[in-house]
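$ run holo --ligand "zinc ion" --emit tokens
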Amino acid sequence: MAQFQSWLHIFYQRLFPFTDFYRWLAYGEMSKGYFANREWSFTLASDVYIRFQSYKTADELKSEILRLCPVKIDIGAVYNIAPKDKKTVGPSAFRPRERELVFDIDMTDYDDIRTCCSGAEICLKCWDFMTISIKILHRALTEDFGFKHLLWVYSGRRGVHCWVADERARSMSPEARSAVVAYLEVVKGGYHQRGQGDEDPMDERNFHPSLVRAYAVLKKHFAKTILLNMDVLGSREHWMKLLQLVPDHEMRTRLDKEWTDETPDSDSGTTSEERWNRIVGELRGKKGAAFETADRAIIFRYTYPRLDANVSIGLNHLLKAPFCVHPKTGRVCVPIDPTQCDTFNPLTVPTIQSLLDELNAWSAKNNNPSYIEAENYQKTSLEPYVKYFRQGFLDPMASEVRQRMRERVDMSF
Ligand SMILES: [Zn+2]
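-- output --
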């Protein structure tokens, strides 16, 4: 632990992109005190948890983080006053004002359908669930809601976060956030667990255009992720879960018996794909609305993003800052370019140890004092991630802020 702490200190000193954080969270200081009224909270190595910290500048933030050397940094809301002055006013006079619209997707919510790993474990097979989530939510948030400034981040262990930073998203009320979540949350605590009388989103009348577009993506991933990689119809434990979603008792018991009777290790054993095609074929041959949409409902149940709604709705919820180091894995919480999410590999992202090794290797090789110093991150494999953070997220936002400022000036004449 002591060694991790000393590594962390060097990481914050030399690699953590404080000025980029300022650039991000000040949002061009379009509104005064935006950075200074932001809540920061820290988890220390001793498990002490400090909330409601706030800083005026990137330097102030950096020196405090170097002093505390937190194992986790969380970002909260922008309040009406600086959070560090919270105690100087009554509780009712301290209110969260704005916050990015955020989403948190955690692999443990997929434990009922994962066949490869469980709990905190992940592998490339189940990482697909995160890739699918990024694709589906990114499309819906940009096309259906028109948001432009989304930052996707690997949580460092087994999930992803999304920060929607558009001005319109930041100023949304909890009610508006709730409405967005309700729109996106097709599979709430398990699609089939919806209450009686609740609308069935799979019903033809409710299957809105956004779901039609999502379905096109989900169908492709279902074949690869669920049938091939997860092989969900390959073992009784897992096919029983899927068969539960088939709305026909006779079919469920018959297929279960048939598959159980097959010798699992013989060459004649059918694959999950063949078994799935069999289910779909039989459903097609039956009459009734429930049968027509049953295969679609199963595909949604198995692949549609599972959101932690509370994180998205509450204004004062905290979310781990990008570029933190996960204390258990040592991996850095790096941004993910959604257009490249298919090739993102969480198991090969830089770790704190690999980055410090790279810094040392660079110094050993470049000991010529006349050499113009590169920024530290450029000496390491953190470079593409910092570059994406700047060029893919901060630059487009800055040009929008400039555009807004011009509009304001124009209007004042
Ligand atoms: Zn796995």
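-- notes --
The longest strand covers residues 72-79.
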